[in-house]
Amino acid sequence: MSEIVNRVAQSKLLTLNLEDYYPKGSRLQIDIKEWLFQDLILKEKEFRSQIMEHDWEQYKDAYVALNCSSDAIIPGWAYMLISSKLQPYAKKVVMGSLTDLETAIFQSVIENLDVSEFKDKPVIIKGCSNKPVPPNAYLWAVIKLQPVVKSIMYGEACSSVPLFKRK
C-alpha cells in the first residue's frame, strides 16, 4: 500500500486569506438626522451647538460611517465639521453606510499590502471568510497581486478557479 501524500501541503502554492487582514476596531455609524430640526432641516446654530456637546471620545479607535437617513439636503460642511471632531479619536471616517466604511477600510488594507512574499509564486485567494470582507477587496487583491505573481486562483486548494497565469 502506498503512502498518502498531501500534494497541496508540499506545493509552492501560497494562500492569501483577506480575513487575516481584517482590522480590529468597532464599526460605528453616526446618523446626523438626529441633529436636524424635525429630522429634515439643518439649523446651523443649533447643529453646531449639538456637535459641541456631543461626546466624541466614544469613537476612540473606532471606524465611523457618517450618513443621514432622512431625505434632508445636508451641506458638505456639516460632514466636514463632524469629521473634524472625530479626527482625534476615530481610526477612519467615511461618508456613507457601514458597507461603504468596510469597503474603504479594505481599500486601504489592500493598497498597503506588502506582496513581496508572493513574488513569482502561485497564489490562491481564499474565498470564504467569517468576517465581512467586502467583494471589492477580492478585485483589488487580484489587481495588486497580478504584476508580481506567477498565477492567481480563487477558492480553496482542493477546488480552486484559475484567474490569471503569467505567460
Which properties best describe this structure?
alpha/beta, 5 helices, single chain, 167 residues
Structural features, described:
This protein has helices at residues 7-10, 44-53, 76-86, 98-111, 135-145; strands at 14-16, 27-31, 63-67, 92-95, 122-126, 151-156, 159-165. With 167 residues, the chain is α/β, with parallel strands linked by helices. It folds into two domains: 7-23 and 105-165; 27-90, no CATH class. The strands form two sheets. Strands 1-5-6-7 form a four-stranded mixed β-sheet, with helices on one face. Strands 2-3-4 form a three-stranded parallel β-sheet, sandwiched between helices. α2 links the parallel β2 and β3 (63-67). The relative contact order is 0.18.
| Radius of gyration based on Cα positions | 22 Å
Structural class: alpha/beta
The pLDDT mean sits at: 92
Which range best describes the helical content: under 10%, 10-25%, 25-40%, 40-55%, 55-70% or over 70%? 25-40%
How far the N terminus sits from the C terminus, by CA atoms, comes to: 39 Å
Number of helices: 5
Strand proportion, as a percent range, falls in: 15-25%
H-E string: HEEHEHEHEHEE
How many beta-strand segments? 7
What form results from the Cα inertia axes? Answer: elongated
